[in-house]
Target: Methionine ABC transporter ATP-binding protein
Amino acid sequence: MIEFQNVAKTFKFGDREVNAVKDVSLSIQQGEIFGIIGFSGAGKSTLLRLVNLLESPTHGTVQVQGVDINSLTPKEVRKLRRRIGMIFQNFNLFSSRTVAGNVAYPLKLAGVPKKEINERVAELLSFVGLTEKANDYPEQLSGGQKQRVGIARALATSPDILICDEATSALDPDTTGEILRLLKKVNKDLGITILLITHEMNVIQQICDRVAVMENGAVIESNSVFDIFTNPQHLTTQRFIQSVQQDRPSASLLEEWRKKGGKNLYRVIFKGDIASDPILSRVTRKFDVDVNIVYGSVREIQEKFYGNLLVSFEGHSDKIPSVLTELQDIVTVEEVKFNEG
Model:
């Protein structure tokens, strides 16, 4: 659906050049939700703006449905933009227009007959759950309702692609969850490809199929969300994962555990269906060893289980190596040092 081929974007400020995007190559498949994550200044917003030619690449090509968009005439660019909906962090609604008026605006620009506009607006407001707010103005709405209006407006021209620019950054956690569920509904029910950028790994975890991590204008890692979460390669990616994974207990908790006699701490990682099996209890029971779960969790990522537990084993010291050996044949086990906590 979208392909970046060795794309670069350089901005010039007098004698100074800023390389906002550096040699990025990515393919976004039709019907998927693809996330781009990075800290502020990573280049993700600039990359997003290249898709609908709000910015033009300095080098490389951007293709949408197999067409090099830099080859398009101004008229063709306008047609392209009608196929690409966009929602924003700060909603960008017209304060002087009602909810219905905001949703109708792109249809009026496209010259759609009034009757069709009214039908389409009613359909979209029903889809996003705001039928009763049609005659309200943006100032009367909550943040989540404003973003629902933004989504309805972005869908007005029946786009093939929806671009989300930090669409949940201004929302509280509960409202963020509601908007992400709505975006998944857009993707599933309407078959729309979604490309989103965010600095929140929690958003990536909840909604995306695949993700690219950007730093200093370059893509440093790209993979399925499950593989990124369970096996991050780059230090920056690991930092993002740790921000939501919370797989390291506090120093005070570790100290308390050590005071109670804790000695050796192990990280046990489960992936897939195996995470729901009682492996720890089965293996430790076999060797008459007790297991103490000190910290961690089992979570669901892309409809797959992923467990990350910190445990200690208590029993005869000569039996614990046998427990570790048998576990290592089934799951990932690594010893954790206190100074890593």
